[in-house]
Amino acid sequence: MNDTTTRLRASDLEDSGDVGCNPTENLTMGEVIATRFNRRDLLRGALAVAAISATVGNRALAANEQPAKKGLAPSFDFKEIEAGVDHTHHVAEGYDAQVLLRWGDPIFPDAPEFDPASQSADKQRRQFGYNSDFVGYVPIDGSSDHGLLVVNHEYTNEELMFPGVGVQDIKDVNFSGMTRELVDIEIAAHGGAVVEIQRRNGRWEVVKNSKYNRRITADTPMDITGPAAGHDRMKTVADPAGRKVLGMINNCAGGVTPWGTWLSCEENFNGYFQGKLADNHAEARNYKRYGLGSPAYAWGKFHDRFDLAKEPNEPNRFGWVVEIDPFDPTFVPRKRTALGRTKHEGAAGITNQDGRYVIYLGDDERFDYVYKFVTAGKVDPANRAANLGLLDEGTLYVAKYDADGKGTWLPLVHGQGPLTEANGFRSQADVLIETRRAADLLGATKMDRPEDIEANPATNRVYVMLTNNTRRKDEQVDPANPRANNAFGHIVEMMPEGGDHTATAFTWEVLVKCGDPSVASVGATFSSETTKNGWFGMPDNCAVDSQGRLWISTDGNSAKATGRADGLWALETEGEMRGTSRHFFRVPIGAEMCGPFFTPNDESLFLAVQHPGEADEGSPASFDNPITRWPDFKDGMPPRPSVLVVTKNGGGKIA
Ligand code: FEO
Ligand code: CA
Ligand code: CA
């Protein structure tokens, strides 16, 4: 998972700057600053951070001068756990973490029990998938004890899933161990799941005979909707109309809409395609910008559509936000092209004061951008069917963070500014298919890998997780990305003008720079109340609970990187405690923390433990020789990615 890794597996794709690099020469914020200050005064390193911070508003200082506003989130009061790494998970004292759904668990009455020694694609299609990332809870009749869990299965680890297979890559073994059967199991283990769950006598259980339960895979038929549907660049041999596609891939984070649908986001889709296009091919520039050409999976060996030479348009049909109605098991998932094509992290939204729905979107790549989508129509609480059309019409914007703590949302609209035929954009479909290149031309701010973004309905502030970017150089440092060689990431807080999420103006500041605050050269800015267990690196997913409190899960901590496993931390955002972080949960060795998602009453918290037992800092790990057998700890059973639900012993809110 570090920069010296040579394999291009899916987890490495998340961390790979070799692909999809932003080639533009948009001014970095450091250059913007340099135009305001004499170049000689633009200090480097930690001193630069102090100098640059002084140029933007600092709400933390302001908050110290006045009492905390009434009605804002109360402070956390759980007793934090000790940071560290071992074979299992840990949760704060007084809480219970129940393993609810493991990879391979049957989710239908007739589904076969999991047997890793005799897995098949048919079995896998009836069982819970691999590497859960986003977990959403959609209440049934408003209940916090009965609802539908919607879960993304982001990617697969062949070396941990299959006996005797080991790591399969293109560089060292040319996928030689991958058979068609294994590839088809992988395809069936991708996608997502809808699972009805119910809480009885305090324990959550899966309702196996539910009419709602469903597996979605990387070959489930889906519709393509919105402005790019039917465009020539979306057409393939199998789909001459350009409106139907098989499957969704590498679905990372997502969102749940107020009308009860699940938004599932395709992230590192590039790693699934093999073959090369000629440099003068019409799609060559497009595919370079998204990092195609370095396959992490062998799928193209057995399925022509994953081979660029045979089906050059297929990659244009991935990289979208997919909307799924979990209450209708026959619903054909819809790829909503109006929301743009990027390596989408998440799609959490908020209903604006005027009723329009606003979705915040991160494009997880070094030096890529923060986006938002504003629907043209308004959410109608009385008309669910009408809301199902909302995401096909609206405006996509990309963020530009100015040096003075202000910022602008720039619209990606065909015909406006540089988004014209002269630059290769003949229609809005072109703008959306090449969202990144359109944003390049608009001059968006290059960020340190934007992951989850969540709005806090209590304050209208928006939190942007920027997980890390070790390739940012001193001269590329800017106020919104204030550290060179940013190994530990940071969080930016945005305030839409007038609390209006549709506004094109906003203000912003850095909420916290992550990493060990006791090491001066790291430049972390957690509050002094944060303990040695309380700080974290690499923020990835996040949730705002119903009381407006921010919870953050991480990806990339390890014994070597930070002396701690990934996990969940609670971060104070208000008053004098602002910037204080506390450790609530940690994952077993090799895993990253995904989720988190709360029930409406904050009494249950869903978490996903992704890729437990994956090689940690280069040490070997395989099905036959795992570094943990979490969560079953049985001989012959590999580690199993799982969804957990955390509750308070004796009941009550998680806080
Ligand atoms: Fe799949 Fe950006 O994490
Ligand atoms: Ca993520
Ligand atoms: Ca991740």
TrEMBL record:
Organism: Microvirga aerophila
UniProt cross-references to PROSITE patterns, sorted A to Z: TAT (PS51318)
Region (Disordered): 1-21
Pfam families, per database record: PhoX
Record InterPro entries: PhoX, TAT_signal
Name the record gives this protein: dTDP-glucose 4,6-dehydratase
Positions of transmembrane segments: none
